[in-house]
Every structure is written in structure tokens, then in C-alpha cells.
Specification:
It comes from Spongiactinospora rosea. The protein is an alpha+beta fold. Strand 5 and strand 6 form a beta hairpin. It is globular, with a radius of gyration of 16 Å.
């Protein structure tokens, strides 16, 4: 997959460079869809990249629960549309490196997938609770 600079000479978007790097990973199979580009491992979709600056990643519920404090502390990371998925905003080089590291974790979690991966994550509820201000103490 070729990633070209824009006509005005500005460098490519960081999300596009992430997509180009992921195509070189031997365990991932890229697939073009009407929504953008997705990557699969053993037929299971783990990355969805649209044309914007965000990408969705299937980390699995057990990994999300284990990494709850780290994920909650990252402003680039938010809960995904489905359970076991997160959304990452890729706006600069650090975001791109974070996303690639998380893809590596997702790849390992998917390859080592067990029955526990099918259960729901409690991260959504925790994330929602932390956004809700606590009432003042009497």
C-alpha cells in the first residue's frame, strides 16, 4: 500500500503511515471496505481505520479490564462502539506509536483468544463513572 504526500507538499497523515506500517505485519491481513481499511488476524477483524484521524481496535474485554487505569489516563483513547473495542485518535507521531503498541497487544490477545474474551468489559461503566462529577461531601 503506497502512502503519498499531499499535493501541497505536507507530509502524509499519521493514520495513513500507521496503515502503511501495519500492512507489513505478517500476521495481519489488510482488507479494503466501504468504510476504509481493516486488518484481520485469522479471519477476525481487529483494526478498523476510516479516512479520518481515528482508528478502532479490538483489544478484547480481558485486556481492556487489565489495562483500565492506563487506558483511562490516555486522552487519545475512548471506548469503542462495541464491547472489547477502543477508539484511538491518531494526530501525531506519539499517538501513532501508541496505536501500534496497542495493535501488538491486540494481536497477541486475539491469537491467544479464549472463552474469557467473549465476556463483556466493565471499562465502559468505569469510564462513565469517572466522567460523572462526584457529589460534594457533607
Amino acid at each position: 500500500m503506497a502512502v503519498l504526500a499531499r499535493a501541497d507538499g505536507t507530509p502524509p497523515e499519521y493514520a495513513a503511515s500507521v496503515a502503511a506500517r501495519l500492512t507489513a505485519w505478517s500476521d495481519l491481513t489488510p482488507k479494503r471496505t466501504w468504510r476504509g481499511l481493516e486488518f484481520r488476524v485469522n479471519g477476525r477483524r481487529i483494526v478498523r481505520m476510516s479516512k479520518g484521524r481515528t482508528a478502532e481496535l479490538r483489544l478484547t474485554a480481558p485486556v481492556i479490564d487489565r489495562w483500565e487505569s492506563v487506558l483511562t489516563g490516555c486522552e487519545q483513547v475512548s471506548t469503542g462502539e462495541r464491547d472489547g473495542w477502543i477508539t484511538v485518535r491518531i494526530a501525531n507521531r506519539n499517538d501513532a506509536e501508541l496505536f501500534l503498541a496497542l495493535v501488538s497487544v491486540a494481536l497477541k490477545a486475539t491469537l491467544n483468544c479464549s472463552a474469557a474474551a467473549s465476556r463483556g468489559s466493565k471499562w465502559r461503566a468505569v469510564r462513565r463513572m469517572r466522567r460523572t462529577p462526584r457529589p460534594p461531601r457533607p
